[in-house]
Prior knowledge:
The protein is α/β, with parallel strands linked by helices and 388 residues long.
Amino acid sequence: xKGITILGATxxxxxxxxxxxxxxxxxxxxxxxxxxxxxxxxxxxxxDHHPQYAVMVEETAAQRLRVRSxxxxxxxxxxxxxxxxxxxxxxxxxxxxxxAIVGAAGLLPTLxxxxxxKRVLLANKESLVMAGQLFMQAxxxxxxxxxxxxxxxxxxxxxxxxxxxxxxRRILLTASGGPFRGWSQEKLRGITPAQACAHPKWxxxxxxxxxxxxxxxxxxEVIEARWLFETPPEHIEVLVHPQSIVHxxxxxxxxxxxxxxxxxxxxxxxxxxxAWPERLDAGVxxxxxxxxxxxxxxxxxxxxxxxxxxxxxxxxxxxxxxxxLNAANEIAVQAFLEGQLPFTAIAHVVxxxxxxxxxxxxxxxxxxxxxDRRARIMAAAAMARVAA
Length: 388
Ligand SMILES: NC(=O)c1ccc[n+]([C@@H]2O[C@H](COP(=O)([O-])OP(=O)(O)OC[C@H]3O[C@@H](n4cnc5c(N)ncnc54)[C@H](OP(=O)(O)O)[C@@H]3O)[C@@H](O)[C@H]2O)c1
């Protein structure tokens, strides 16, 4: 039996992970599940998977979960607060930790998981975007086994695993293009959160759905790939592939190109991460290429979707630039989701924040967090200017 803790269990990646785990109850034992405030969601998961610990970040939510679990006779220890996220990530019973909290809030718990030297399944790409160098340094120092869960990076991981990395010429990251592929900037002006969250191929949390619609998600993934695969950003290319069947490709010096294909279903990369190097039945349908008929590829539209270009520039600039980009994006996306900022203004807020926060070379995680804090203040000011 392998012990697994899921950070961000009630989200899209968290629930999909439990779907895969639930198909193999003889192989996995759930040790801890965490959520921010979704009491009923976490309660349902506790009833189904019987973890030893459940964490709610909000204390009032934790109180409600304690009452509800007692009423239902559940034997689970309910913890609360940010520190509890790190504590359960470090439990000795864990063999594997799924890092699936959304945004910068995932950085410290994911680093806590890394510090155990265990297998870490990385969905929280923002950790690597904010603190790539320090994060990978911690992975090496603690001997953690890092397996990417983003479908693109998991595809690259699979294409690289038995190969010599020095023979890699290029990484080709595929992108679906999001719900507004082919649209003009003019048409994007009145986009609502509901439209932005209606992704044509993937069902995901709201923040990553908006990032996919602006193409910022692909920019964050370029930065993620840069650190995961020790590849300079100029050797990472983005390719729009609307069917989302080819999840990414690796080109080698001899001209060989390896790709990983599957239906767009997160259970595939999650099952790969859980079982690697073995393979698990993830409940995913077989791929029917004849039914698909064709696979299309096109270059991304960097004019209509400037966030991808901003992220590539931040990747090139290095230092704190990606952390500044990430913080500004989180602030702007949240404002858009709350109806306070137009969709097309997200890129303006990110661009202005990058122009106004002096980039540095953070030497510690504390310095990264300070940079994140300053960038959020500047992004809020940029938002006020954009709205004026
Ligand atoms: N969804 C996908 O298909 C997909 C694919 C690749 C990569 N990813 C990455 O995986 C991560 C999670 O994405 P998602 O789509 O699963 O997000 P999501 O559906 O929004 O779920 C986020 C999870 O994190 C918890 N959470 C939110 N804010 C938190 C905070 N401040 N502190 C602690 N926990 C917090 C949420 O708890 P509550 O439910 O209580 O709010 C929930 O459990 C993101 O980094 C995303 O980029 C997602």
